[in-house]
Design brief:
about 425 residues; alpha/beta; 7-stranded parallel sheet; 13 strands; about 35% helix; UDP-glycosyltransferase activity; UDP_glucos_trans; transferase; Glycosyl transferase
């Protein structure tokens, strides 16, 4: 069998998707290891995973909006994180000797280290922005990103972009959500990878009222500081539906005032376990949350904040699976109206169901070009990492048939 080294930033939406793929590979008998901040990875993946620790250092907050948010993401996190972790990731490649490096598009060190060591690599695309390339219409922005990558010493020879493997780009969505795009042949849109979560938080299941529609409100793990103005307006919208809606709000205690009776507020909630009970989700349009909802046929109210979220929100609206509101400006009345629309108008749930069906269909066997089998040999003339001795039969360097990742329902919790 083969060895796979996963490199992802310590962010839940990135790690959970990669972790589901890693679990599917492990179940097939392959060896999997991770390179990243050990404490964060073990918190999300459990203590049983093999981790080559890169360490971690603080990075500045991401409070900006619009293009300034893109700039702060790259200059404040993606590039410094890649520079800081690259030496440790290179050591991990040398020590583990993977056949393939699976590198998140925001963990550039994985792609750079793989290229330097002559190892095949695949890009993991857990966000919309780096997949659908919305800045193609803004060539100066694309050029700015490329210059920053080059200036950070993270460029790859032959003109390859470390965000986009020339071998395989694995995206956790489908054309039913992205809309029509002329993706290259080595792009595999496999739908969301929903795996078991290492430690699901406790939840008061008995507090849910079966006579009311359950609505999840979550603005993501990175938006707590900027969502404090949104929560009071959302609370007022929920009060307008108090007789028929019970909300579950993922937020720190004390940050959401004046909620209607019966509202459940917790810093963390078991999202995947809740999904089958939900009638709607109100969220920031993070692709991970959106796809978790749509994988269960749940319509959305999306209030995008920054980064790829406006792109994903536009995709949700175009698919007919939700309503978009303005994160910074929509008042309680507009929010209440949007929630009423997705709860009462059957077209939204029907559209969410169509996207769900596309996600499920993405797990059926697909042509060889959509699997790990398609990755070409290591580039000629480059030195591969020396493989440490191992027990048991010699490893094969191909995956025996079947798609890279199983259908969502096969790896779901």
């Amino acid at each position: 069998m083969s060895r796979f080294l996963f490199v992802a930033p310590p962010l839940a939406g990135h790690v959970y998707a990669a972790g589901a793929v890693a679990d599917a590979l492990t179940a097939r008998g392959h060896e999997v290891a991770w390179a990243g901040p050990e404490t964060a990875l073990r918190r999300m993946l459990g203590d049983a995973v093999s981790v080559y620790s890169t360490g971690m250092r603080p990075y500045r907050g991401q409070r900006d909006r619009g293009f300034r948010a893109v700039r702060s993401l790259w200059e404040g996190f993606v590039l410094p994180y890649a520079r800081f972790t690259l030496p440790a990731v290179e050591k991990a490649v040398a020590a583990f000797a993977p056949d393939v490096v699976a590198a998140d598009q925001h963990a550039l060190a994985g792609a750079v280290a793989a290229h330097r060591h002559g190892v095949r690599w695949a890009s993991l695309a857990p966000q919309s922005m780096e997949l659908t390339r919305p800045f193609r219409a803004l060539p100066k922005v694309e050029e700015w990103i490329r210059r920053r990558i080059d200036g950070a010493g993270l460029s790859i020879a032959d003109g390859a972009d470390p965000r986009f493997s020339p071998h395989l780009v694995l995206a956790f969505t489908t054309p039913a959500l992205t809309g029509p795009h002329d993706f290259p042949a080595h792009y595999a849109l496999v739908g969301p990878a929903l795996g078991d979560r290492a430690a699901a938080p406790d939840f008061p299941w008995d507090a849910l009222d079966p006579a009311r529609s359950t609505v999840l409100v979550t603005m993501g793990t990175l938006a707590e500081d900027v969502a404090r103005d949104f929560y009071p307006r959302m609370a007022a919208a929920l009060r307008a539906h108090a007789g028929r809606v019970q909300a579950v709000v993922a937020a720190p205690p004390g940050t959401v005032p004046d909620l209607p009776p019966g509202t459940v507020v917790q810093p963390q909630v078991p999202v995947l376990a809740l999904m089958p009970r939900l009638s709607a989700v109100v969220c920031h349009a993070g692709l991970n949350t959106v796809c978790e909802a749509l994988a269960h046929g749940v319509p959305l109210v999306v209030a995008p904040i920054k980064h790829d979220q406006p792109v994903t929100a536009a995709q949700v609206v175009a698919a007919g699976a939700g309503v978009r509101v303005r994160f910074g400006r929509s008042g309680a009345g507009e929010l209440a109206g949007a929630l009423a629309a997705v709860l009462d108008e059957p077209g939204y749930a029907a559209a969410a169901g169509r996207v769900r069906e596309s996600f499920a269909a993405a797990g059926v066997p697909r042509p060889r070009r959509h699997t790990w089998n398609s990755l070409p040999p290591a580039p000629d003339g480059r030195t591969r990492a020396r493989r440490p001795p191992r027990h048991g039969p010699p490893a094969t360097r191909t995956l025996a048939g079947g798609p890279l990742v199983t259908a969502p329902q096969e790896v779901s919790s």
